[in-house]
């Protein structure tokens, strides 16, 4: 496709006429597969421009089993520049589509098989059926496996936890059966259009979902709830988990290779990126009796432990701004003007860090409400970018699983992350020589040593422990 | 939108044809109007016309004089002198266009309207729907976090006030209605209030419900009575949960889940509105694929953009055989039968159902029997010059029918163009309107527009007449302005004859497609060839370069004559 208009800007030379007037790009001539004696040809992802490395299948013009004539459009491919028709260079039958609509494939990888005769369609299909016999990838290094296009850069926007985990029957049993009043004794499922779409995306069987909509109709949130419940049943529940970046999806098919979702890709990128930062760790044991007592007292007002910890951390950070700083360019300190506490939350198929902004300034009750709102939004995949990208210090708490200590990876762009273990009764010796029982938790801070030094963390942790051991300031 | 069904193929969708034996149902208001009118036909006009004078405003007074001249003769003998040169029955867009042109040509003109001025388009169609679509377009944009982020914008959650949206649509209709009425008054067109009935050659009576009638004579008469939503048999419209476009445009509620019966222009536009406002939509389409009537390639792309990613699902190849409105806590129940086998197929339960199965001509009570004209499925038969054809196949002198009532091409602007064509003929210039040059548009986000033939139609014609066709296509992704707007999704397609450069059809799916089509429709109307128009300059960067690109991609036989049909402009 011509890009003459793109090139109208004065500093770029006009494209040669040969580039300007080509409505279609021909597919590379499909090569005959060496190992297959019969005339089954592969259709490859064509290179539609010099910069193209992968293409997305916009639509299949032909369906499996359709007859093709030479020169006929078979498939529409989206490159980095435009959608283009790909034509067949042979007569034959479209035997099997390997890369479905909406998926991407690397340039040169096989996207479909072309059979010369109708009889060979079955043969061609049998080739694609066995996953252990991949078509030989013509371009070195190119993976045949189609991958979901990374369309949405924000991890949250990637709403679908992709692995099509079919929700197990165990989970379904726990959810009860949906008997719609007008669904002929459960024979027919009444579900809204979006609920059906979601169910397909999340791999939820609608038959097992209880509808909460009008007349017992299954609506989107029912499907989301079912998917979440199923994930909990098999995954062991959703806590916070920085150390295990990818929560295990439910009902995975053993022996299969499941590509990352967009969110998982984002996590993966961040994790690798973190290796470029020189980090070190400092641990501290904090007595939480007073904090626990406070929590019991104000729990009924909707205050959560997460909010209390975030508040305590924020108050400590006020006194140690360097721990709230970060190193952006390797040459300077960036002292953040706000104290924004990001808290890691495991959600279905990934991990997100909703941010409690200005946690030092907001009162504990508002902070708790805010936290609840953020978690709901995170579960519904509705967090706005400023609600998960603006953290200056991160908290990760695995205490609810009984984990007593762990080590967190520092998220790129921030200076420090604190891993919080379970708070548990411990026998301790006191200064006056007695032995007593105290509830204690271990925290472990990972920090970027370019900006935060050992003494900084030590001082910060000391302040934090004082705040937690005498938590009256938290409710101010 | 409202005035159209599937303009390039049959004037009515297949539901209609398949059920042509069924009774046409009209919405409640209209049916009442019919009832009263048929009663009034039997009243003795002569004895009661004076009462109109006292009750009518200044328009009424004018009627007295015009009507008094003819009220005595009651027969079918054509009068020799006339109250008006032209009387138009129906003040919709068609009647309005005809009236304006008639005044310009010096004809003494009156327009009869029994309902509100402006007809379907202004009050219950194109105009209010554009107001709703303007809202839905913005909502869609604000809700598209990815799109906003790509532009560098951060928007907090977008929300809307239903009543304010409904008011916007209603206010727009009032404003346009006012403009239209004022333009007629300012030009000296008499507006006669009441339902018009043809009582004999060149003679029309009109009157308000419950009042006596007035009779006027006219040298020529144009029927422009338009259409009403078509509701298939078995569907009970209650105006609340089972509605037509008439009700939907008032936006009295936004259901969580609405079924839209019919996936043509009207259904598609409403799906855009409802999904933007948070509803989920189920389409019910009698044909095997959605969006019949569009060029298949455009339809496929449109489905990929307008249907698949949205909260929409669909049943195709089915009729809604029975729709029961919601009552007693039960939802709206829609029974579906297979379009071919007529076997019961499924039942759908929704919060509301919008019937968008096309439009039926509004021609009952016109008194066509008085002049031996029989409607065909309600449509008034006309020739290519809009002259009415009677039951014996003969032309009825001095009687024309334009717009939805003749069913040639059910679009507001087509009606207007037909009206202008008729006025041209009345003033001594023969004129035949080229319907293939009339563009059509669907105002979804992004928009769809088209003019001329679809690819299958063009191929069929090419085969029949023995010529080759070629296709040029371009993507909005190759357009700078579209990319600047971050709206690269779109396709434009030109169907032309490589031997002589004739443009057969242009189809656009993409941002502002409805505004872009006119360059192509003008080219078709004026007979401009591809090889000539490709030298016309387009401002850069604009979306109109999409068409420029098409013309430049086209490969016309270099020996084709450049033969512009119109005279070149002197410089």
From TrEMBL, chain A:
Family: Belongs to the 2-oxoacid dehydrogenase family.
Organism: Sesamum alatum
Annotated Pfam families: 2-oxoacid_dh, Biotin_lipoyl, E3_binding
GO term, biological process aspect, one: pyruvate decarboxylation to acetyl-CoA
Cofactor(s) listed: (R)-lipoate
Assigned EC number: 2.3.1.-
Keyword Transit peptide tagged: yes
InterPro entries: 2-oxoA_DH_lipoyl-BS, 2-oxoacid_DH_actylTfrase, Biotin_lipoyl, CAT-like_dom_sf, E2/Pdx1, E3-bd_dom_sf, PSBD, Single_hybrid_motif
Positions of the Lipoyl-binding domain: 40-115
Gene3D superfamilies (alphabetical): 2.40.50.100, Chloramphenicol acetyltransferase-like domain (3.30.559.10), E3-binding domain (4.10.320.10)
Keyword annotations of the record: Acyltransferase, Lipoyl, Pyruvate, Transferase, Transit peptide
Residue segments, region Disordered: 124-163
Protein name in UniProt: Dihydrolipoamide acetyltransferase component of pyruvate dehydrogenase complex
PROSITE patterns: BIOTINYL_LIPOYL (PS50968), LIPOYL (PS00189), PSBD (PS51826)
Ranges where the Peripheral subunit-binding (PSBD) domain occurs: 190-227
GO terms under cellular component: chloroplast envelope; chloroplast thylakoid; pyruvate dehydrogenase complex
Amino acid composition bias (Low complexity), ranges on this chain: 129-140
Automatic annotation (TrEMBL), chain B:
Keywords: Chloroplast, Disulfide bond, FAD, Flavoprotein, NAD, Nucleotide-binding, Oxidoreductase, Plastid, Redox-active center, Transit peptide
Matching InterPro entries: Class-I_Pyr_Nuc-Dis_Oxidored, FAD/NAD-bd_sf, FAD/NAD-binding_dom, FAD/NAD-linked_Rdtase_dimer_sf, Pyr_nuc-diS_OxRdtase, Pyr_nucl-diS_OxRdtase_dimer, Pyr_OxRdtase_I_AS
Transmembrane segments: none
Single GO cellular component term: chloroplast stroma
Segments forming domain FAD/NAD(P)-binding: 84-419
Highest taxon listed in the record's lineage: Eukaryota
GO biological process annotation, one example: response to arsenic-containing substance
Family, per entry: Belongs to the class-I pyridine nucleotide-disulfide oxidoreductase family.
Protein name per UniProt: dihydrolipoyl dehydrogenase
Organism, scientific name: Sesamum alatum
